[in-house]
Known about the structure:
The chain has 520 residues and is of the alpha+beta class. It contains 15 helices and 22 strands. Helices cover 31% and strands 20% of the residues.
Amino acid sequence: MTGRTAPRRGRDRRARVVRAAPGRRRFGAGDAPDVAVVGGGIAGLAAATALAERGVGVTLYEREQGLGGRLAGWPVTLTDGSTATMSRGFHAFFRQYYNLRGLLRRADPGLGMLGGLPDYPLLHSGGLYDSFARVPRTPPWSALGFVALSPTFGLRDLARMDPVAALPLLDVRVPGVYEELDKVSAQDFLSGIRFPEAARHLAFEVFSRSFFSDPADLSAAELVLMFHIYFLGSSEGLLFDVPDEPFPAALWEPLGSYLTGHGVELRTGTAVDEVAPVAGGGGLTVTAGGRPRRHDAVVLALDSGGLRQVVADSVQLCDARWRARIARLRNAPPFLVSRLWLDRPVSADRPGFLGTSGFGGLDNVSVLDRWEGEAARWAARTGGSVIELHAYAVAPGADRAARQRLLVEQLHRVYPETRDARTVDARHEWRSDCPLFPVGGYGDRPTVRTPDPGVVVAGDLVRTDLPVALMERAATTGFLAANTLLERWGVRGQTLWTVPDKGRSAAARALVRLTRSRRP
């Protein structure tokens, strides 16, 4: 796949194409600028890809030893002597992630490294169980099918909802959704529309906690945008794909080879200390490991904590107002990923992934040997199983050892056959580096553009006028950052796709406009 090929949009005929500004195809020999990409996660890899494919000289700086950012992996030696790949946990690659999937197609045009899971099941401790396997994918049949099939959301619940308060769900636009709902919490929004309590705990709480936040702390705008992306605005559905091997082998090593084949210098294990403008406007100096190096432009593709640190140490970068906004960015609460290698299998009918609610902070359970090759080979060799547990939005002062024990206890409640299993090995990863999207925080989030035209920002924390979130926001803003620089130099950038940028029903959109126009 070349840089001129757009990501494939999937099955949704209403998906929106976002074309780059016109320009020449690529740089000629000897006239290409040199760009530093700071950060080797999804956003940085997308930016580096779009730039390198058009002849730009790219140096990618990554603090860790491997690529992937928050989806990186690293080797560990288990107590039985075998080697495994540990990571920060399960991620779902939804079919709406057009631009992320377009990035991964560089290494494998057929996306053979991704395989679909047959269901997205949700379980509440009270016994309620929801499934999306049989829910239609195309709106409005998706919503009607969910109501018809779900034990947590029936026709009576639909009748009790406040239709006027729920209207924002029917015509989601960016940035309008933030202007309307950013100052409201996700919890208060759901209460205001009288969303059924059982469905709220089972479905929306699971979704909102995918932002690593408690619904009381999450901007309602993010929740409503997510509802649009995955449910009412897209016909791709809620089923998803997962890599068939650990992240490094399946995704980042092949993509890294693709980038080096396009001339990208990958400087992993290299943290950036400072970015400073060159006196007289001659580009920017990136200092890494105490060594300064001049570049024509810089892409800052860091997590929120890394961005705050680099900007705080780069006292001449952009202007004071912009740096103050970056300094106010916050991280989401800590989260825990526990991976267990057990000496016996779980029941054969257990799903590869299960979202959970009401189980003492346990947010989901993955049976990795159902779909990941490395885990499946270990399970086949030992007769055991590989289980992963997630707990999001853990209180910062929580007793970590106690929380790790609690997660295993909750696994025994969800899958009782694991009570008698011996744990061959266990690894617990605590992290707190995901962006928080707090109530009223939209205005402080950076955009791709900055006060310095040679500095652009990318990542899942970046605000954009496109309906994207999570990993897809990271990939999309990475491409947008590259496109912004390329446009400045008169070179055509990457064509992008998104889910539709407005509600699918013309009648519903008209009703929303009418209601809004009558508000005092």
